[in-house]
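Hey, I'm writing a tutorial for new members on how sequence and structure tokens pair up, and I'd like a real worked example in the thread rather than a made-up one. If someone can provide the structure for the chain below, I'll link this post from the tutorial.
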Amino acid sequence: MSAKSESAEFFTITELTREFGISTRTIRFYEDEGLIKPVRRGRTRLFRPADRRLLMMILRGKRLGFSIAEIREILNMYRSPPGEEGQMRLLMKRVTERRRELEQKRRDIEETLRELEQVEDACLARLAELGVGR
């Protein structure tokens, strides 16, 4: 949690980079993508508590493996209708899709590990036939 309280009027880019362990370039990228819109005072970016919460949601989405386009879609559903039920259904759809993708990746990794184990066993058996140890 930031040293400042959630009720602080503004956060600086430096405060957010320290809090979330990300670079200023990352925050500027999310700004360029239109995901967050800080207040500008000259060249200084000032982030409202709402921007900080959006940044937390963006980073959570990235950790969960969502693309920028998917994160944008999820964030936009909170900014406009179809109402809470529609928003929750869309979010559940995205979560289900991501879960399926990850489960398929897990199956693929498990299959690859089994294949590697078979190759390793075959190599060890052949080395034993040749009278050579590991």
